[in-house]
Amino acid sequence: MKLILKDIAQIPFCGKRFYLCNIWFALGMVLFGLKAPAQAQVQVYVEHQANFGSFVVGYGGGSILITEEEERIAEGEVFLMNPGAEVQPVVFGIEATLGALVHLQLGPDVQIKGNNGGEATVRMLYPSFGTSFVSTAAPPARNYISIPTLLIMNGAMKSIPGNYAGSLSITVIEE
């Protein structure tokens, strides 16, 4: 720990001079082993929101998966429209110390609501490398992480056409 002495006052005590500094807080931290709060070493930015493209949902419902490679896969009674359209999974930009081990914890499934009263569920899946990676970019450069994203629709009666919005959560821990 490096202390910078300011406001030094000379105080005579028992015929000797001692120096008293305004460092009581720092001294307490040293004596009691307390640490000052560290600044955040990792920053997370949303680079791209999920885009599932156009589709039609049948009465039985189904799901659409957007892979890390931006491939769109439908299951159940979901019919993909405009197959050449641009689709994207959620992409995060993560600033972390170069060489640091970074862990991801994805949040829970999220219920999203449409502007016309519909509802659906969005689920993030872990990327192909798993839950941890080593940062290969020094800030301000970012590590770009594509998160496979799954949209689950309950059927034509609940997943009506419209614009849907919601918030996803991710926890990023740097070691």
Termini Cα gap: 21 Å
How many DSSP E strands?
Answer: 14
Q: Helical region count? A: 1
What proportion strand? over 45%
| Rounded mean pLDDT score | 80
Overall shape: it is elongated
User: Could you give the order of strands across the largest sheet?
Assistant: 5-4-12-9-8-13
- Order of secondary-structure elements: EEHEEEEEEEEEEEE
Name the quaternary structure. Answer: single chain
Task: Characterise the protein shown here.
By secondary structure, the chain is mainly beta. The protein has two domains: 1-37, no CATH class; 43-174. It is built from one helix and 14 strands. It has one helix spanning 24-32; strands at residues 9-13, 16-20, 43-48, 55-66, 72-80, 90-95, 101-106, 110-114, 119-124, 132-134, 143-147, 149-153, 164-165, 170-174. The strands form four sheets. Strands 5-4-12-9-8-13 form a six-stranded antiparallel β-sheet, with no helix packed on it. A three-stranded antiparallel β-sheet has the order 3-6-11, with no helix packed on it. A hairpin with a 4-residue loop joins strand 8 and strand 9 (119-124). The protein is elongated, with a radius of gyration of 26 Å. The two termini are 21 Å apart.
Question: What are the SSEs and their pairings?
Answer:
Layout: E1 9-13, E2 16-20, H1 24-32, E3 43-48, E4 55-66, E5 72-80, E6 90-95, E7 101-106, E8 110-114, E9 119-124, E10 132-134, E11 143-147, E12 149-153, E13 164-165, E14 170-174
Antiparallel strand pairs: 1-2, 3-6, 4-5, 4-12, 6-11, 7-10, 7-14, 8-9, 8-13, 9-12
